[in-house]
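Obj.: predict assembly geometry.
Materials: sequence records (below).
Method: joint structure prediction, all chains together.
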Amino acid sequence: MQFTGSHILSINQFEQQDVEYLFKVADAMQPYAQREKRTRVLDGAILGNLFFEPSTRTRVSFGCAFNLLGGHVRETTDIKTSSISKGESLYDTARVISGYSDVIAMRHPVAGSVEEFSRASRVPVINAGDGPSEHPSQALLDLYTIRKELGIQEPVASLRIAMVGDLKHGRTVHSLSKLLCLYRNIHFTLVSPRELCMPAEIVDYLRSKGHSVVETDNMQTGLNNNDTVYLTRIQEERFSNQSEADLYRGRFRLNQEIYTAHCKPNTVIMHPLPRDSRAEANELDNDLNQHPSLAIFRQTDNGVLIRMALFALTLGVAEEVHKHVEAVSWFTAKRFRNPPPIPT
Amino acid sequence: MQFTGSHILSINQFEQQDVEYLFKVADAMQPYAQREKRTRVLDGAILGNLFFEPSTRTRVSFGCAFNLLGGHVRETTDIKTSSISKGESLYDTARVISGYSDVIAMRHPVAGSVEEFSRASRVPVINAGDGPSEHPSQALLDLYTIRKELGIQEPVASLRIAMVGDLKHGRTVHSLSKLLCLYRNIHFTLVSPRELCMPAEIVDYLRSKGHSVVETDNMQTGLNNNDTVYLTRIQEERFSNQSEADLYRGRFRLNQEIYTAHCKPNTVIMHPLPRDSRAEANELDNDLNQHPSLAIFRQTDNGVLIRMALFALTLGVAEEVHKHVEAVSWFTAKRFRNPPPIPT
Amino acid sequence: MQFTGSHILSINQFEQQDVEYLFKVADAMQPYAQREKRTRVLDGAILGNLFFEPSTRTRVSFGCAFNLLGGHVRETTDIKTSSISKGESLYDTARVISGYSDVIAMRHPVAGSVEEFSRASRVPVINAGDGPSEHPSQALLDLYTIRKELGIQEPVASLRIAMVGDLKHGRTVHSLSKLLCLYRNIHFTLVSPRELCMPAEIVDYLRSKGHSVVETDNMQTGLNNNDTVYLTRIQEERFSNQSEADLYRGRFRLNQEIYTAHCKPNTVIMHPLPRDSRAEANELDNDLNQHPSLAIFRQTDNGVLIRMALFALTLGVAEEVHKHVEAVSWFTAKRFRNPPPIPT
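Observations (raw structure tokens):
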């Protein structure tokens, strides 16, 4: 894969060596994200951060990653403020907005819309989520986290992962599953209510690539003997009616007691966030907040590294980053302290 | 006209020599907008980008122009988030916000409001559209585009232009018409439904300045023998009821077939955008997307140059831009490729 | 108080010497805010400007202050765009967002929420208003303004202040009152309808600290013999029904005639803004707009200095600011002209 000048639309674009290279570049971003030093490599460049669907985490993560490389961010956060409501095509929007940016990160509620947009864009477009379809930077940061947490230096050669919750609507588990197929010998345990199980075509795909897949609606069995447990929220916004979502909320929960009883020691705990911490849902309990295997906040931190790497690669400056280094003089110590106490 | 420190509120402020000077400065911005090099002339300056009415294109264009000169942008995009809903006067808003900015770009739904705001502002204010009234940077970029497309080096001395569509509500055709009156020997052909014709006082003004004006509701005749055809969208948001707008939508359309049949070869095709590409409107068909005379996306690109020039001039740094030049190291090649294919 | 790395949540954190030091740092920010020179001390740092409640003035003021120190701003302006609507806890939001920022300014409608957020944040958090509770930077800028307007160089040793209007709901008068208790010999005159009087616990607190407090619903008596008159708006958004707010609107007004008749010459006129300039309210009339004692716009200008100082102190660069100085080459003269004319 030629990164420079490319759109990043789907994890299907990536071969194993692309992922490995991307992760190397992400590793090299660590000291900048940690504020040990800073770089001005994209000083003067402009990110068009184009969010046609509400998002705080992903939007700010992309913006922050671009700022960390020294660039400016121009943001659009609401479809109502867009010419699209006046009948403008994505083609026109893309031709216009790409004239205002050096690279674009785009989220849109409609599957395929980011790809459609990218065909008319004069600058690289990074898919930040197109409805239920793709969100490649999330899958990449998830895999990157798994490797870091498990201390895997080489390409993944064997892994046992349980995915738990709403596997039908969860975009992240779909993408991560497919991405893991670039590697060998993955054991998937898919834990969900039958009605919210992983789509059959994805299960078939995983098996066709030679991986083992077990599907179950039994949480306790499912948690057994994994390297990683990946929990998800009931995606209530994708249900046609709220009362249907209520049926499933709170059915699969992980807390300290269940973890100790059923998970192998040091099983890495992941979640794409946001987690639903309301009492009726609470799929991942706050009593694990200080557990050393809880990786959920390291996931979001890793997201910044992955997005920095994607910007550096698509704009062709991955090897230039270190030529524009300056010192950091402000207070940064707090970032490295222990996890904050469990909220009461 | 003294640009430095001035508000830019109306095209009525401009004399011919001001326009000529502005366009020279805009020409000099080209290499920065094209990313051949970059400038830090406004590094540290702050633009207050104040949009009390939804806008993507214009808002991002102003922000991008300011970033391209090296400055920061602080943005307000929604009137609901404003103190104005608590009874604050524009006078107060202006005195406060102008303390947070070096220059302000402002859009507001009420005619005259930007001028009212500017009277209390301590920094230059650029009108980015005050309801149906003025949008001077749009008229300037339109004229700049006409000259570039037709290869006119000197002040315009003769021009045949057809304006088509909703000439009653279209702020851009009003402003462009008046701006063209600074030049000699303009032939206007005004094509619209009778009910949406150009306001009589503007027609009278054009004639009083010695220009020829023909009004018609016949599209075919109207397209004949022009240097430029300027199409507009039915401004449905300015109609009191939607069904009235529906009467006119789709009545004047330009597509490949009509262009070939009725327009002089190389007639420049313009549109202020957004164009309404829904089937029932489609005033400018996508089948012209790759036509070399389609200037609509060069218009928006030129908008960045014009806005860079307006910032540089009002802040008095037009002659300083080139003293703060640095190299661009990131990927920029895509900007120069051919138009993307016609969407299907 | 150790500023570096600290959260700024409440004026209760401040002792007299902290306020004095903060004001010294704010004084030193003046030439940067006035554009006599500029600094890049926070070049590369990121402010997370997190507004879960609408605000223009405070939001832009924090952003501007950070830009003036050279930093980037990543903004979130609407709770609807937040994961909180999907059941995310403030703990999670804080752990995630604090990974994207070097410092956070946060406004939230719920009292105590900023403090809750700060407990999980890895970076310093500055409270930009948590509902009816605290807004420390406003109280600090108010006190800073009083001192500058009255030419007080040393800690305040004696002051006569009248507070007028909705003293029940006005967050700013609560905080300023408490902050003034750090000093000696303050005479408070509290002018309000009985139903909107200052909460008894605050009055008791002021008296317990040895200050004199007079409560009255007579505007004319109340205005007599003060150094400063601090007016407030009826906080209609905090009333349970609008018609109740209507009872009080317009009952206590200051204009040129009343000022001349009842105020000591040179009494400083303050207001936290926005003022309600609609005819039925108009608590501070526009006919005082050019009065030399009208300090309301200097208050907002001082707010930038106070916020620059808070950023510089919490990030530990207060002594570094002057080591990163550069010249300002753009037009800045307008900032220093006379007040604009009274709007008609």
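Conclusions so far: Chain A touches chain B through 47 residues (CB under 8 Å).
To do: check interface contacts against the pulldown list.
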